[in-house]
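Internal tracking record. Fields below are filled automatically when a chain is submitted to the structure queue. Please do not edit lines marked as system-generated. If the sequence contains nonstandard residues, flag them in the REMARKS field before resubmitting.
Queue: standard
Priority: normal
Entity type: single polypeptide chain
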Amino acid sequence: MANNPRAAAMAAAVFLLGALLAFHVSLTAFFQSDDFNFVAAAGWKGLRVIVEPFGGGFFRPVSALTVVLDHALWGLNPTGYHLTNVMFHGLNAWLVCLLASLLLGRGEERGELPVLAGLLFLVLPCHGEAVSWISGRTDVIATTFTLGSLVAYLRFRRMGSTRALVTSLVLFLLALMAKESALPLPFVVIAYELFHPSSTTRGYPTLGRLAVPSLFLAGLGAFMALRWAILGGLVGGYGVSVHLSAHAVVVARNLLAFPACALDLPFPGRLAAFMSGSAPAAAVLVTVALALAGLVMCFVRRRSPTPAFLLVAFYLALLPVLNLPLSLTDSQGERWVYLPSAFLCILVVWSLARLLPGRKAVAILLVAASLGYGVALHGGNRRWRNAGELARIFLADVSTIPPSERLFVLSLPDTVGGAYVFREGVIMAVAMFAPAVRLRQGGTLVARSTFSMPDDEVAVIRDANRFLVRPADPSGGFVLDGTATPGLSTDSYSVSLTSAKTLTVDIHDLAPGDVVACFSGGRLRTIYPTRP
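SYSTEM-GENERATED OUTPUT FOLLOWS
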C-alpha cells in the first residue's frame, strides 16, 4: 500500500467514512469547557493566534489556526468544529495504516494487516476524549503531523528521497506547533535507526547512523527557541510544578495504566490501590513488569526488531505525560494516549499475526475486537454528547433567571462520566450564549459537581443564609474553583468541603435581590428566592 497511490487514496476515503460512522454521535454535541474560551478567542484574536499564546500559556498556533478557520466557517455552530476533529481522526487512522505497511514485512505490507491496524486505531474507545471534545483536537492534529512526519521519514529511508526527508522535517515542525505531544518524535526516529540499521549504515558507528536523525533534534532546538521568544520560557502551560513534576508512584502506575487505558483493558481496583499505596510497592510491581517486558523484547528482537521498536516508541511517545495523574475510574486524561496508541495498534496486529495460525484467524479476531471497541466507543461518545447537552441546558436555564444583584450557583456540572462540562469556560459561555445575564462582581460560581449520569440529583438544605449541599449519588462529589481545596472564603461567601461529599455554603448578607441556584436533575434550579 505504501507504494500504491491508488490503494492509499481508496484507503484514505474508507477511513474518513469510517471516522464519520464511528463518531456520528459527536457531530451534534454542544460546546464544552475549554471550547467556549477557544471559540471566543478565535473570534476575538483572529489570525493573531499565530504569534500570540492561545489558551493560557500554551503555544499551539497550528491547532489554534484550525479553530479560527472553523469560527470563520461555522460561527457558533459546534457541528463544523466536531467535523474537523473527526476528519483529522480519519486521516490518522489512514496514516497508521501507511505506517504499518512500512514497518511490517515486505509480504505483509500488501495484505490486510496494515488495514486492520488502522481499523483498530479508528475505533479505540480511549480516543473519545480527543475526538469528541472539540478542545481535544490539539492531540488529534499533532498526531496527524507526527505520523505524517514518521511515514515520510520511513519513505526517505526506503527510497533515499531528499524531498521525503524535507517533508518529514516540515511536518515535524508543524506537529510541534500543534501540541507538545510531538516532542518525542526525534527520539522515536533515533530508536528506529538503532533497531533498523539500513544497508548503507549497518557497518557504521552509532553516531554515524544518527547523522540524519540529528536534523530532527536541530528542528526541536529551533522550535524551543521560538517557544522561548513567544512565551518567555520553555515550559509554559500549567507551569513547572505540573509539567516537570515526577512523583514516583504516579509514574510507576502510569507505566502499566497507560497501555491498559489505550487498549481499554480493565485495571483491577486492588492493583490500583496497591500501586497508589506507596512508592516501594509501585516500584516493585513496575520493576517486575518491565523486567518481563525486557525479556520478551530480547526474545522477539532476535526474530524481528519491529515489535521492540514499537514498544519503545509507545513509551517514548508517552514521555510528555507520563508524570500526569491518569484517572482510573473515568475517561479523564484518555487523550494523552492518542498518539502512543498508534504504535500499540501496530504492535497488537504484528503480535497476533505471529501467534495465530493464518491471517484469516487474525482478521476475524481483530474485526470482532473492533466491533466490540466500536460499541464501547459509541457509549463514550454519548457521554460527551450528554456533557454538551448539560452545558446547553445550563445556558438556556440561566437565561431565564431574572436580573439579580448577585447570582450564586452552588453546584455547576464539572464532568459527567469523565466528560468535561464546565471545568473551564463558563464565564465566556454565558457571555456568548446568555448575554443578558451578568455574572457581576461579588456573585460567583461556588462549586462544581462531578456527575455519573446527566440527571444526577444534588440535594440542598437551606438554613437562613447557610446552604448544605450533597450529591444524591454516592460516587458524586464537588470541586471548588476547579480544585479539590477543602475550603474557600470570599467577600460574598465562605464554603467548606468535607471529603468532597458535603458542601457547606454561608452567603454573606443574603438580600432579596440575590439569586441562589443549583444544577440538579439535569436542570438549573432556583433555591432562593423560592418561586411560587
